[in-house]
Specification:
With 669 residues, this protein is an alpha+beta fold. It has 13 helices and 32 strands. Helix content is 24%, strand content 29%. Helix 5 runs parallel beside helix 6, helix 6 packs across helix 7 and helix 7 crosses helix 9. It starts with 6 loop residues before the first helix and ends with a helix.
Length: 669
Amino acid sequence: MKRRFRTTLFIAVPAALCLLIGTGLWALPSSQTGLESAARPVFAPETAKSPSGSRQETAVKSALPEAQPPASAPALSRRITEYHIGAELSDDASTVTATETVTWTHPGKNPVSDLYFHLYPNAFSSEDTTFMTESGGKLRGDTMPENGFGSMTLTDVRTETGVSLLHRMQYVRPDDGNEDDRTLVKIHLPQPVNGGESVTLKLQFQVALPQIFARMGQSGRFVMAGQWFPKISVYEPAGTRGVKEEGWNLHQYHGNSEFYSDFGIYSVAISVPADYTVAATGFAVKNPKTSGGRKVYQFYADDVHDFAWAASPDFVCAEEAFSSPEVPGVKIKLYLDPLHQDLKERYFQAAEAALSAFSKWYGPYPYTTLSIVVPPLSGNGAGGMEYPTLITAFGAESSNPDTSLERTVIHEIGHQYFYGMVASNEFEEAWLDESFTSYAEDRLMEQEYGVSPNLPLQASLVTSPKPLTLDAWKYGGSDAYTQNVYIRGKLVLKDIEHQVGSKTMDTIMSTYARTYRFRHPSTADFQKIVEIVTRASWQDYFDRYVYGQGAPDFAVENIKKSRDKSGNSESIVTVANKGSFYPGVSVRFTFQDGHAVIKTWDGQGDRTSFKIVSASPLLSAEIDPDHNVVLETKHMNNFRKASLPAAAVSRWTVSLTNIIEAVLGIYGW
């Protein structure tokens, strides 16, 4: 997800400061729904374990469509899950009614008696949910509309043989015990599932769409269905992300957290009013079928870990085929808000640049489609978000936006790699997605558009450094989350690049992305790649700046001036590091005649002193004048004039710091 900052201020400030188908569908014949059954996908598990029970009930017959994938397509992931979903959007676009058949293949060894599902829409069911209490009803500058609540209701849950499991459901709150939170549910099975076996459940559910907020919902005639279906949690075998004992990775939906899912297969049919157009994950299996005032779309996707769709009768649609040496062939599809209909070329150019560069740097884009949805301004809460093969840009605020248009598209396509294919746990290690994507975004924006990031200014925003491996909701608020997960994590990557060189960093990033493609890596896995590529231990560095909250804080503490016996100017300059250890920092000494001398401090000890002798008096001293130490967040004490009293320096520094913090506090979000 892209957290937006006011781009112009990142340029202006430093210059100024001189720095469904559901319940009803199962009962309807295919002639009424327009949905047709087909053969089971060839990559589905060959056998599925059907939990038996003492009381058998008549199974509800499903009219769910099943799409046949290309027979030659190899499996790129383990495909732990398989979803067949039929969804119907109500005529007023306020409700999605759906059926879901999900097959889960046990990736571990120990018997499993419970399945866990994320019911994300319940985060918006009241002001008392965990998401709402933590976020205060605000996210990315967007505010929950008044009385804009939504929810998800499971209306039926059965085994493949028809045994009802509704009475075996229990909401769980492993993170905070909040009884008003219903975003995670446990379903107890009639009999355990052993390692390697599969189990199939049939669900019926209804989603009352919230008014668009936090990535999903309805705004007038626009619908964004993200995190809209019961999604099974991730069961981690021993060794996954370094876990020692296998088990479910279970978390509620929090104000800062995003998502974590297993790879699988999705076959999804979506019924909408006849004048609506649907954009979705994957590719359309057939042309949409219109009947009785309804239109039915059918999509298929494999080797993805989520499925999202958007719908509107107002989309202005365009598409373009693209290929490059690393991208065999992709159909880029645009679903534009009318205000942006004349900007098609800019969207296509940004998407093509991102696909080409990221596929070269991090591995080929393996899918045949990429959809870009541009919401209306009223649907901005759904903007700037990533889903497999589908991204959302920000709602149109003007007919001629600045390069934030391209930046958002590039960032979200970056997530097709870091999140989409390299599927980290965004609950627990969000920096592996956001920081890595932000790093790639900056590199491409500079390469394609000549827009260089102001890293010192961005570093100054990090007022509360925290470990990058904190659970997302433990940062204490959205500001600290953004500072660390988006900015500080990216600065760590830039700092590693500064130490090893850009070519070696390219190798590190490429090796990491290709090694953990279609897997669930951890921070320790990334550290291992850094150490393999550089052939050196980085444990101290990671302990200090990744697992810890370290940040160097260099300061020119004092300058004492005198003259030696020869009449030369003599100065004793004391410099210090009041923060975390950082080796090798330059100090520039500038003299009144205009010449300058650069010396290096190895960083050992808390402070050191330089004796400077020159015919020309010392004018000033500055630590890290080129701002190479990007992890330093406080720069105001890096500079001192030789003739300015310490008390005056202190007052000036504090005053300017307050000005910067005030400006950035108002405009950065």
